[in-house]
Amino acid sequence: MTDRAPGQALPLEELLQQRPVFVNVGVRDFGESLRQAGYEVVEVDWSPPAGGDAKVAALLDDLL
After folding, report:
1. What is the pLDDT of residue 7?
2. Cα 40 from Cα 32, distance rounded (Å)
3. C-alpha span between 34 and 41 (Å, rounded)
4. Other Cβ atoms closer than 10 A to 31
5. How far is CA 31 from CA 37, 48, 53, 60, in A?
6. Domain for residue 14, yes or no?
7. Domain range for residue 23?
8. Over the stretch 22-62, which tens digit does the pLDDT of each residue have?
9. Distance between CA 62 and CA 59 in Å, rounded?
10. Is residue 12 part of a domain?
11. pTM, two decimal places
């Protein structure tokens, strides 16, 4: 591995030699199937704003 500044991206060749880490957003079953296949998975606990209610989400968007 080469020395690089914090936040600096890896060279493509080095990146492709590493095992991927997946980020799973929302549906835990997707991440679980990757985990069972032996991959590392980072879970993000996310759900749509306002529980998916488009009208309430639009109202929240207007407030922000």
Report:
1. 79
2. 10
3. 7
4. 19
5. 10, 18, 25, 29
6. no
7. 19-63
8. 999 988 899 999 999 999 999 998 888 888 899 998 998 88
9. 5
10. no
11. 0.58
DSSP 24-60: EES-HHHHHHHHHTT-EEEEE----GGGG-HHHHHHH
CA distance 24 to 20: 13
Amino acid of residue 44: V
Domain contains 37:
yes
What is the number of residues in the chain? 64
Residue identified by tokens 């936040």 is 7
Q: Residue 53 falls within a domain, yes or no?
A: yes
The total number of structural domains that make up the chain: 1
Question: Rounded to whole angstroms, how far apart are CA atoms 57 and 63?
Answer: 10
Distance CA 23, CA 28 (A): 11
